[in-house]
Each structure stands twice: as C-alpha cells, then as structure tokens.
Amino acid sequence: MKNKVTAALIASAMLGCLGTGVYAGSNLQEIKAYLNPGIKFKVDGQPVQLTNSSGAVITPIVYDNNTYLPVRSISNLLGVTVNFDGKSNTVELGEQTEGVSIAKGFDSSYHTKDPKVTIYNGKDYKDVFFDNGSGTRGSSFMLYPEGKYQKLYIQIAAIGEDLKEFTIQDSDTDTVLKKQDVRVEDGLVTIEADISGVKALYVHGDAKSGGSVFIPLTTSYYK
C-alpha cells in the first residue's frame, strides 16, 4: 500500500480518540458531539468497515464540523503501528524512536549466554541464538511482537556454511515477510522486515551440515 505512514499521519491529525482506554489526566474537556453511522469508508478504492480491537463496528463522531475516529482503527487499515506512551502522553505512529531487543522472553534450545560461543569477530554479544547442531537441518525460533511494532531488524551471520532461505514469516497467516540467503562471506548482516500488526513470527532457515547460525539478540530488535 502506497504512502502508508504518510496517510496514517494525515489521518491521525483528524482523529480524536485512541480507543486504548487511556483517559487519565487533567487536560480532558467535556464536549457535545454526535454519532454519524451514515459515513462510509474506502481504502485504495475498496469499501472497508472500521472496527475496534474487540471487533465491534466503529461509528464516526462529528464535532465542530470535523469527523473523529480512533487512531488505532485507522492505523490497522493502513498497516501502520500505533502505540500510546502514557509517561509522555504521546501517540506514536510507525517505527518507535528506540529499538526493543528481541532478547526479552526469547525461548529456544539454542539460546545461550555462554562466552565460548557469544563472540563473533572479536566482539562479545553476551546473549545470542547459536545453532551449531549436526547435519543438514532447519534452524528456527518464534518471536512474539504482539502487533506492537512496525519493523523487525535481525542481525545474523552464517558460520562455516551458507544459510539458505532465511525467512521471517507471519505465523498466523503463513505470509512470508522476508526471505534471503545468508552467506558466510557477508559476515554479520542486518535483515529488515515490516511486521506491522503481526502478533507472532516464525523465523527459520536451512542450515547445512558443518554450518552454524549466529544471531546476537541484544542487537536484534523491534522498532
């Protein structure tokens, strides 16, 4: 979809409600507004129905000749992540300013902090996914962004043998978000994938006999 972020930013300027249940604060002002169920919506020329996180239909609110809708409903249609920072009382659209490491909650039998295998090219990454299994095999793990992020950046290196078809996939829909080979000669590379709205990811690749897969978790992150 063209100009997703731009469209979402324009839309957000017109919208008055997050739909997140956040109402605390002293800046709220009571107003008199009207529901207008007659307004219809299209995205890229196709009719759409706006719903909230529970699946209930959203009815536009009209106030002072402007139409207001929850930011989250619009962002979901446009494929742009939205978050609310309660500390700064700020709506965040698209990529977050600070990356969030995938290390938190990471679960895999190849997850290790053993200093014997966390070092790559002289740098100790402390916390890594290091698959040094035997034979030709699938090397895989799950991630759970829970729809909170716009992008995923994974750093990865193939050691000994190239890694074929390293794939980042939406686990719920089986949609492939990114696929590429990782060559030993490339060293540590960063692979980017658009994960807007994705709750669970299946990350996998085809490892050859004699090859290892090295992914530093501390420098791989959501954003």
UniProtKB/TrEMBL annotation:
<keyword id="KW-0732">Signal</keyword>
<protein>
    <recommendedName>
        <fullName>Copper amine oxidase-like N-terminal domain-containing protein</fullName>
    </recommendedName>
</protein>
<feature type="domain" description="Copper amine oxidase-like N-terminal">
    <location>
        <begin position="58"/>
        <end position="101"/>
    </location>
</feature>
<dbReference type="InterPro" id="IPR012854">
    <property type="entry name" value="Cu_amine_oxidase-like_N"/>
</dbReference>
<feature type="signal peptide">
    <location>
        <begin position="1"/>
        <end position="24"/>
    </location>
</feature>
<dbReference type="Pfam" id="PF07833">
    <property type="entry name" value="Cu_amine_oxidN1"/>
</dbReference>
